[in-house]
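Troubleshooting: if your tokenizer reports a length mismatch, compare your output against this known-good record of 73 residues.
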Amino acid sequence: MKFFLVALLGGIVGVGVSIASFYAIGHFFGPLSQGEDDATKYFKVFLAVSFALCILGSLISIKYYKNSKQKKL
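Known-good structure output:
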């Protein structure tokens, strides 16, 4: 159960990093979309990046958890 929670927390952190990075890009570089088609394209990019960072965050947290568990033994 703890292993699942570590992976879930890593995924949540990954999505949080995605949201924060897209917010920062929008804040510093202004609105990227000029119409509905652009907004749809960038939303698809956001979903893909969020999914990738969710998986990456889960994998990194699992690896860190396994390494910290082995050091205790």
